Amino acid sequence: MTGHRRSDARDDVLATLVAGAVEAADTLLATGTGQVLVRQVAARLTANAVAARGHLPAGLDTAGDPDGRCTLLAAPGGTDQPARAATVTAAAITVSQCDEGLRESRGHPGLHAYAAALAATEADDRSLRVFLRALAVGWEVGARLGLLLGAPRPGVHPHGGWGTGAAAAAAGTVAGQDAAGLAATVNLALTVALAGPEADTRRGHAAHYLLPALGTANGLTVARLADAGFPATAPALPHLGRTVHQGVTDRPVDAALLSRPLLPDVYFKPVGVCAHTLTGWTVARAMARDLPADEVATVTVHTYAGAALLAERRPVGRLARQFSIPWVVACGLLGVDAGAPDGPADDRRARAARLAERVTVRHDPGLDQGYPAGRPAVVEVTTHGGARLTGRARFHHGDREDPMTADDLAAVDAELLRTPGVPAGSAELLHGLARAPGATRLRDLTALVRGGAPNPDGGPPPVPAGPGPSGRKDTTTW
Question: With a threshold of 0.90, does the pTM exceed it?
Answer without folding.
Answer: yes
